[in-house]
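Researcher: Sequence recovery benchmark, item below. Answer with residues only.
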């Protein structure tokens, strides 16, 4: 008995020792394979597999290294030997077809794959396995054919739609791609957004967008078109910015659904988000007139008002909107005054009819903005915001309303009240880190205006350490201005601080006086180029275009190593293009930007402007 126990122990011990040894050899083989000594690695895998025929990893090592050595016969032999042990392994059987293809024996590949499909004709997974193998070797047409056979054999005409769409799109066969997505969408109506996201990836170019749109249009012209297809058609028309066609499609959808106002409302919102405010205003108005009892009318009124307001602003700045300095055309302001008056009327209607809604609070904020920006009535804007903060029940409005109120009190030079407002926001939003850093940056700027530079630096230092925060970059810029000038040019820093405050208060002439004093009396101050740039912008706002350019040229001539020289050249180009209308000189200035730093962001912008200007000249 004792002898039997010892024998069993020795057997188990030897088995364990051999197993442990094989594990070490396997890791060694993997390391050798990674070091690209493929032949030596294969010999180790063969040795391991000979001792343990049921281990898939050992077999796979033999097959993989044989393929790498282009010893396809050995890889095929190993695969067939494995199938003797695991005859139901369709993946391995299918992979043999791929090896035949590598060995340039395409007929054998096709024969083997067909045999697999024939044996497993009712097994959906077998078609996927074979198609994936074919796709591995970029045999898209064969993979497509495999799925088509699968549809026929399983008698399921909608099977593999997503896979087929993906393969067709890789071959740029958009008609088949879209048709497959429609097959899928017809079965899975709730997957509309998924299909839209897939098609969005294909429609990045105008040509692709047009091709996809044509297919969808053709399919939706057939009888008994599902409503979800029309929604896809509406989406592609919105993508193409063909809003009138989208409106027609929406009206067609309306004939099929009960919530008709919702459909027009949805379309209006989409067009507004796309930035076509004139059209969105038309659509909101159409919704309002067609469905006067719509239960969300305050949203329609607000959307219409916001569209009119934004359209008014876009018309006033149309000629210079693409520049860094959009300029309001005062003549147009009179011409389009009715738009802003209509917007105010609509905002007031929302405020009266739905006084406790979020849209009512937003309406008050929009009226305050109009009063400030277009009527220059800061006192009325402050009164509106102050009333909103005190009486509104919409908590979501509080932070933004307070920020706007603080900005206006700074414009009125009431810095203490602004500080109290920021302190109120900070105490009210302690748990919101993003809000906390935003208000701290505002407080730091306020201390900068008050020339409390030590306090401003202390706050800015805290913010600038949080690199993930949006405010960190702005904090570092202001921090550098203060720290670089605080000791070496304190008087220049004070003048610059006052100039920035005057700018915020729309006292451009006072700001220009301070900046001129810096430029003339503090030529070596580290912030000199910041002062020159700001003066140029203010001269531009005052429509003194020639002096604005002269100021920028002064920077280029007297401070050739300034980090803002590239920006200065670009700004000169924009002033020449958009305000002075001298396209040839603008091109020269843009070319100078490209020469200074051909790989910069401003160089890319300059190339774009040059292309546009030369096309105009042609």
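Model:
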């Amino acid at each position: 008995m004792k002898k039997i126990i010892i024998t069993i122990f020795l057997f188990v011990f030897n088995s364990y020792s051999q197993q442990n040894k094989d594990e070490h050899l396997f890791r060694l083989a993997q390391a050798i394979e990674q070091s690209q000594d493929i032949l030596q690695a294969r010999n180790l895998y063969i040795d391991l597999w000979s001792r343990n025929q049921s281990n898939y990893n050992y077999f796979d090592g033999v097959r993989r290294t044989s393929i790498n050595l282009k010893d396809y016969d050995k890889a095929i032999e190993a695969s067939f030997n494995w199938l003797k042990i695991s005859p139901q392994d369709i993946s391995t059987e299918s992979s043999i077809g791929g090896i035949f293809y590598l060995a340039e024996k395409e007929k054998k590949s096709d024969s083997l794959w067909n045999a697999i499909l024939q044996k497993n004709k009712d097994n959906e997974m077998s078609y996927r396995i074979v198609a994936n193998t074919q796709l591995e070797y970029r045999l898209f047409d064969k993979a497509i054919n495999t799925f088509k056979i699968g549809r026929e054999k399983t008698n399921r005409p909608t099977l593999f739609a997503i896979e087929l769409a993906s393969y067709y799109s890789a071959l740029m066969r958009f008609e088949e791609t879209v048709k497959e997505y429609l097959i899928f969408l017809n079965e899975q109506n709730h997957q509309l957004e998924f299909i839209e996201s897939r098609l969005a990836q294909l429609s990045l170019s105008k040509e692709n967008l047009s091709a996809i749109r044509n297919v969808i249009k053709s399919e939706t012209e057939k009888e008994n078109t599902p409503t979800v297809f029309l929604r896809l058609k509406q989406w592609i028309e919105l993508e193409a910015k063909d809003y009138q066609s989208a409106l027609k499609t929406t009206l067609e959808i309306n004939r099929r659904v009960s919530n008709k106002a919702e459909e027009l409302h949805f379309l209006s919102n989409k067009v507004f988000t796309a930035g076509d405010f004139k059209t969105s205003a038309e659509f909101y108005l159409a919704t309002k007139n067609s469905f006067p009892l719509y239960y969300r009318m305050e949203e329609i009124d607000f959307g219409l008002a916001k569209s009119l307001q934004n359209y008014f602003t876009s018309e006033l700045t149309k000629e210079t909107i693409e520049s860094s300095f959009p300029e309001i055309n005062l003549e147009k302001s009179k011409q389009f005054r009715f738009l802003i008056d209509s917007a105010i009327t609509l905002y007031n209607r929302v405020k009266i009819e739905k006084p406790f809604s979020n849209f009512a609070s937003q309406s008050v904020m929009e009226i305050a903005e109009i009063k400030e920006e277009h009527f220059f009535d800061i006192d009325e804007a402050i009164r509106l915001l102050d009333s909103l903060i005190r009486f509104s029940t919409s908590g979501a409005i509080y932070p933004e309303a307070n920020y706007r109120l603080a900005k206006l009190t700074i414009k009125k030079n009431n810095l203490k009240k602004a500080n109290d407002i920021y302190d109120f926001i900070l105490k009210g939003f302690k748990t919101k880190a993003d809000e906390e850093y935003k208000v701290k940056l505002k407080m730091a700027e306020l201390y900068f205006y008050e020339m409390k530079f030590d306090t401003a630096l202390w706050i800015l230092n805290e913010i600038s350490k949080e690199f993930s925060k949006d405010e960190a970059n702005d904090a570092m810029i202001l921090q550098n201005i203060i720290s670089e000038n605080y000791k070496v040019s304190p008087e220049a820093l004070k003048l610059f601080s006052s100039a920035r405050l005057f700018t915020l208060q729309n006292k451009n002439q006072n700001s220009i006086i301070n900046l001129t004093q810096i430029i003339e009396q503090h030529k070596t101050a580290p912030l000199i180029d910041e002062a020159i740039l700001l003066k140029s912008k203010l001269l531009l706002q005052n429509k003194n275009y020639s002096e604005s350019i002269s100021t920028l040229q002064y920077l280029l001539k007297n401070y050739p190593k300034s980090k803002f020289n590239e920006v200065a050249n670009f700004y000169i180009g924009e002033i020449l293009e958009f305000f002075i209308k001298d396209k040839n000189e603008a091109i020269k200035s843009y070319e100078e930007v490209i020469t200074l730093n051909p790989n910069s962001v401003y160089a890319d912008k300059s190339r774009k402007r040059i292309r546009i200007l030369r096309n105009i000249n042609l």
